[in-house]
Write the structure tokens for this entry.
Amino acid sequence: MLVDFTGTVPEEATAIQCPIEAPLNFTYHTSAGTCSSRISSITRCAEWTRLSFRYQACPENPTKEASGMECIASWQSLGHTFFAARVGNRRGESYRCFIVDQSGTSGRIGISADASCQELTHIGAATTTLNYKQDHKVHPLCDFPDYMHAMGRARHRQTWESIVTGRRNVIQDGSWVSSYKLRNDTVWTCLESRRHEHFTAIRAHVRRGCQTGYQCVQVCKESLVNFGQISLNEYEDCSEMVVDTRDTLVVQGAQEECPLRGRYTSAACQHPLLFLGCNKPDEIQIATECNPVWKGSCRPKYLYGERKEIHKNAKELP
């Protein structure tokens, strides 16, 4: 979006992609002093419109902070790029304007003192100045298992749903994107993949919100996924990781006929408690003593030895 912007930042503005390419390393100068003995950084968050600024403390400037920002406008003027952004979290947002003076893969970024852009006509008018250099971008070096992102010979892009969080997951070209309500919350980039007998061990770069790091991921053929903790160790051995969380992915929107169709009771109750495929072949109904009925659908099942596992998506009937 290119605009002639000289007023204050509009709070209702829609988020856009920021006009600077992260990741960047920088030193900075503020009214409190210059920090040139430590390297600070700008990284891209999982959501493509957000960036994370991490200011390192220095002996000459003890301030250390991290803040996320969301770009909402950009424009060109007098050979410079300007942009406006919401800074901070949703509860404590403020607004700032930025000026970019770029030369190749390095340059300077100036930040305004408040939400007004009128005084920020040149770098010297900024209250905070960053001297930056482009850092190396993270690119996929491997891919996630084929069955996670392809179906059949046509290799259509697969969309998965987490049965733990309900998040939408798309895996393609070495990247795995988890989103909720059309906003990315986690992005994994495959760096190393090793096949084992019962699972594939993956070392990945991860962006969860505005947190970045590295994470081990174990993917089983039953679409069971184990996650290790996020760490700063780029070369962690993922063959023998400590499981931090688990999830199971099912194909989004997929349903199938329920196995073991019929009505099931318990000796402790007079009435049937579980109905499998009675009204519809793919429908589950669960009754309780308190009388609300939970209705769901059978999802694609996976075979664990001699045990079949059924995933259901349930909701309470009125």
